[in-house]
């Protein structure tokens, strides 16, 4: 705790960062969520997954949604994508109400969900073809996106031949090829190993820099949230409520070396405290009372 | 404690054996039953509960007549032989005491024919000539004189003695056969001879092979189908029934799997209907569709289609729903979700389902061929089975088994060719898939390039200023 006392306040921003945020909120609102409530009927009675959740995201903003397990982050993103209907409340994308899934909102799932019977190229062509783009044009577009995620060599491979990280890159290319206005990502790197995960985060920021896209990213990883986002939406659990919308004071462009910046660590600590409030600290792990041999090296 | 080598190398809990060993075991799995069959068939002291009669005898006052080739139990056979011996004793005793019966010409003529099976087995007589008395008469003579010697089956010394004694009587009366010249007094009967044998329902491998070869190459009487035609007929019935079943079952199954509406509308009744055994509809089908192949095809259809609807529906429901959600977020409309996601997604599993269902269809075929006018391979099995010609039945049963097995193996291998993306293809099937798809891909790539070039050309012209 002594080390953390030297950290700055998480609200402190350098002038450049605060100027950036000022420019950001000038932009049009890409996604607006108003009083969103979702109740599930279970045999044991109604469960409120989301309770009057409201927030808005600006064009080209990168937002992460984080919260303890059971806070309804996945439900939230599924409603935003139109895969589920809310009990009450409204979602608007560029001022159009969301009534169902549509190509204006892309989605990347944790479980990749690539079509196993299509090659990498055909997977990426799927969206454009659904909207009636002729084959050759869809193919040309697909090639560009595949090149962007660095998988040109694998354009004729089938998903089962790819690693997890490669699959997720294809999934991102597939979602982007459809040219959605907002991209939802539901813990997309949750199934990857730590190293691949770091690479993918940097990849994603690189793509985001080059593509005109607004991203809403669900995660349960603090570092990931702070590293990626402009603002972090912290949700409470049971029922899911907005706890706080935190602007991240870490300047862009970001690199993994910033993980130990005071600003980064301060934000991380604050979010950590929001998710695990000090009063509800998890209990001490039970002490093992077994005498293990060779204590001299411990 | 270390396990002995054989246990360590061959018996691994939940672990695959090396390729060579697996192959070896697969081969053995076929050789093992063959070996058991061969052992039981050719080692005389294993099983052989019957005696196959080679020389038979009719007995006085006993209505049951055994002919050569019949099977009797091993316990009964000595009793049978003893009874004949006692009859011979009685004849000798009567001769000695001079109280000879008369009017035995007819019986003696029959008695002479006892030797016919031996003559036929040795090729001295064609099997159609079993009642050619003049020829048989000569054979008695030759056997008695030793000009002909029976080797397989060898005449027992007892019977050889009887042949000589009988010939002494016969030869003294006439050198050639003449009914008039047959003695009135009874001759001695040949004592029954036989070999240990397995029951008729278990013919030996060589008998099955011989019978199979004969049946498949035999000329058939005018108007009767050859074995090849029977086989083709059976295949036609099963394929027709199966295709009809696919035509109805697959679309319905997919609909039930995709829409809860159809699932609840059809599945409960289908589930009920499939418990009514298809064969119970046979008479109904014949009444409705009359004789010919139609009721047979319909029976295979009824036997398969209800299972197919349920299985296909189940397979469709097992498709990962997140693929459908992904397609939706990519802008797929409901119809596209079925044609672009559901159908391609379930194909490999559907293919495997159909493979299993084709196996079912074979079961129904056998019953289908028995209804109305019997036909195909089953008619042959049925007819020959009634005559207890099991050596002719087994080749057909094996043929059906081999057809089913080979089809299934080929289809299973083709799975890898058709669905390289399922990730289960072997090297060979992947190579074949590539080779087959290569011309298609090349043509498609060429077409795409041409279209792209045309498009670029058109764009260029459109952008060119009008006055240039």
UniProtKB/TrEMBL annotation, chain A:
Task: Report whether Transport shows up as a keyword of the record.
Answer: yes
Its taxonomic path starts at:
Bacteria, Pseudomonadati, Verrucomicrobiota, Verrucomicrobiia, Verrucomicrobiales
Give the domain of life.
Bacteria
Q: In what residue span(s) does the ABC transporter domain sit?
A: 31-262
Q: Which Pfam families match?
A: ABC_tran
Q: Please report the name of this protein according to its UniProt entry.
A: NitT/TauT family transport system ATP-binding protein
The answer to whether keyword Nucleotide-binding applies is yes
Keywords tagged on the record: ATP-binding, Nucleotide-binding, Transport
Q: Which CDD domains match?
A: ABC_NrtD_SsuB_transporters
UniProt GO molecular function: ATP binding; ATP hydrolysis activity
Q: SMART domains of this UniProt entry?
A: AAA
Q: Which InterPro entries match?
A: AAA+_ATPase (IPR003593), ABC_transporter-like_ATP-bd (IPR003439), ABC_transporter-like_CS (IPR017871), ABC_transporter_ATP-bind (IPR050166), P-loop_NTPase (IPR027417)
TrEMBL record, chain B:
Boundaries of every ABC transmembrane type-1 domain copy: 231-415
Any one GO cellular component localisation term in the record: plasma membrane
Q: Which GO terms describe its biological process?
A: transmembrane transport
Q: Which InterPro entries match?
A: MetI-like, MetI-like_sf
Keyword annotations for this protein, in alphabetical order, are: Cell membrane, Membrane, Transmembrane, Transmembrane helix, Transport
Q: Which domain of life is it from?
A: Bacteria
Topology in membrane: Multi-pass membrane protein
* Protein localization: Cell membrane
Q: Does the keyword Transmembrane apply?
A: yes
Q: Which residues cross the membrane?
A: 23-47, 237-260, 272-290, 354-373, 393-414
The yes or no answer to whether the keyword Transmembrane helix is present is yes
**Entry similarity comment:** Belongs to the binding-protein-dependent transport system permease family.
What is the protein's given name? NitT/TauT family transport system permease protein
Q: Which organism is it from?
A: Haloferula luteola
């Amino acid at each position: 705790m002594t080390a953390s006392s030297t950290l700055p306040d998480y609200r402190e921003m350098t002038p450049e960062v605060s100027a950036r945020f000022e420019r950001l909120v000038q932009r049009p609102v890409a996604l607006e969520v108003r009083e969103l409530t979702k109740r599930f009927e279970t045999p044991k009675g109604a469960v409120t997954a989301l309770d009057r959740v409201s927030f808005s995201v600006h064009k080209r903003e990168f937002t992460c949604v984080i919260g303890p397990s059971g806070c309804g982050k996945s439900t939230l993103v599924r409603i935003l994508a139109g895969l589920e209907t809310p009990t009450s409340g409204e979602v608007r994308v560029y001022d159009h109400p969301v009534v169902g899934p549509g190509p204006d909102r892309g989605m990347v799932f944790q479980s990749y969900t690539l079509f196993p019977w299509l090659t990498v190229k055909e997977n990426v062509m799927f969206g454009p073809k659904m909207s009636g783009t002729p084959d050759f044009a869809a193919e040309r577009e697909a090639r560009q996106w595949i090149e962007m995620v660095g998988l040109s060599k694998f354009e004729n491979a089938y998903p089962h031949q790819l690693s997890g990280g490669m699959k997720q890159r294809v999934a991102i290319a597939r979602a982007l090829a459809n040219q959605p206005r907002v991209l939802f990502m539901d813990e997309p790197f949750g199934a990857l190993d730590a190293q691949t995960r770091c690479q993918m985060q940097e990849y994603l920021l690189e793509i985001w820099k080059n593509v005109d896209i607004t991203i809403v990213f669900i995660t349960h990883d603090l570092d990931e949230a702070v590293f990626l986002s402009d603002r972090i939406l912290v949700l409470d659990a049971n029922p899911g409520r907005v706890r706080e919308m935190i602007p991240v004071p870490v300047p862009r462009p970001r690199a993994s070396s910033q993980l130990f910046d005071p600003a980064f660590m301060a934000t991380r600590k604050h979010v950590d405290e929001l998710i695990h409030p000090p009063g509800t600290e998890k209990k001490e792990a039970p002490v093992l009372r077994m005498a293990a041999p060779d204590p001299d090296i411990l | 404690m270390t396990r002995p080598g054989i246990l360590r190398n061959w018996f691994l809990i939940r672990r695959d054996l090396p390729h060579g060993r697996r192959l070896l075991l697969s081969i053995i799995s076929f050789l093992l039953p063959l070996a058991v069959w061969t052992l039981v068939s050719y080692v005389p002291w294993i099983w052989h509960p019957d005696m196959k009669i080679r020389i038979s005898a009719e007995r006085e006052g006993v209505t049951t007549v055994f002919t050569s080739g019949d099977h009797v139990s091993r316990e009964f056979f000595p009793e049978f032989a003893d009874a004949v011996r006692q009859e011979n004793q009685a004849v000798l005793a009567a001769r000695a005491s001079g109280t000879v019966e008369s009017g035995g010409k007819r019986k003696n003529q029959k008695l002479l024919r006892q030797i016919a099976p031996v003559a036929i087995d040795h090729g001295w007589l064609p099997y159609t000539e079993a009642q050619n008395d003049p020829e048989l008469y000569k054979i008695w003579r030759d056997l008695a004189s030793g000009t002909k010697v029976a080797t397989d089956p060898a005449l027992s010394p007892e019977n050889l003695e009887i042949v000589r004694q009988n010939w002494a009587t016969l030869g003294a009366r006439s050198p050639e056969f003449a009914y008039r010249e047959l003695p009135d007094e009874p001759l001695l009967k040949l004592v029954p001879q036989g070999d240990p044998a397995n029951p008729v329902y278990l013919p030996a491998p060589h008998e099955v092979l011989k019978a199979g070869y004969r049946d498949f190459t035999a000329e058939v009487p005018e108007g009767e189908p050859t074995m090849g035609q029977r086989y083709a007929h059976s295949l036609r019935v099963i394929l027709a029934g199966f295709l009809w079943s696919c035509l109805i079952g697959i679309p319905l199954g997919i609909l039930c799997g995709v829409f809860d509406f159809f699932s609840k509308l059809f599945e409960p009744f289908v589930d009920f209907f499939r418990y009514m055994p298809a064969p119970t509809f046979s008479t109904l089908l014949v009444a409705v569709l009359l004789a010919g192949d139609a009721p047979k095809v319909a029976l295979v259809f009824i036997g398969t289609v209800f299972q197919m609807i349920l299985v296909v529906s189940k397979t469709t429901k097992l498709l990962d729903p997140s693929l459908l959600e992904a397609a939706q977020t990519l802008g797929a409309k409901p119809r596209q979700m079925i044609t672009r996601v559901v159908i391609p997604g379930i194909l490999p599993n559907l293919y495997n389902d159909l493979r299993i269902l084709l196996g079912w269809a074979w079961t129904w075929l056998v019953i289908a061929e028995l209804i109305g006018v019997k036909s195909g391979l089953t008619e042959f099995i049925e007819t020959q089975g009634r005559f207890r010609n099991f050596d002719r039945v087994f080749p057909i049963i094996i043929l059906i088994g081999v057809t089913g097995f080979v089809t299934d193996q080929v289809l299973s291998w083709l799975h890898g060719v058709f669905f390289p993306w399922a990730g289960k293809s072997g090297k060979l099937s992947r190579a074949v898939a590539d080779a087959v798809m290569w011309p298609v891909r090349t043509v498609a790539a060429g077409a795409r390039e041409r279209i792209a070039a045309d498009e670029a050309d058109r764009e260029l012209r459109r952008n060119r200023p009008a006055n240039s």
